[in-house]
Amino acid sequence: MPHTPHEKKRVLARVRxxxxxxxxxxxxxxxxxxxxxxxxxxxxxxxxxxxxMLEVMEAHINxxxxxxxxxxxxxxxxxxxxxxxxSYLK
Length: 90
What we know:
Strand content: under 5%
Largest sheet: none
Distance between the termini: 21 Å
Structural class: mainly alpha
Radius of gyration: 17 Å
Oligomer: single chain
Number of strands: 0
Helix content: over 70%
Shape: elongated
C-alpha cells in the first residue's frame, strides 16, 4: 500500500477514475449501446484496474524487499508475494 501522501493521492485518483469508467459502462449498458462500445469500455476498465494493481503491487514489493526494508524479508514475506502474484496472474 502506498504510504506517502503523494502516493496515496495518486492511487485514490486512479480509483476515482475507475469509478467513473464503471459508471460510464453502466450507463452504456442501460442505454443498450453497441457491443463494440461496451467491450471497449470493459477493456478500458480492465486496463485501469491492472494499472492500479501494478502500482500497489510495486509499492508492496518495494516496501518488503527494497532499500527501505529494515530487515531481510523472511520466508513468509516471499510466500505472501508469490501468492499475490499467482492470484493476480490467473
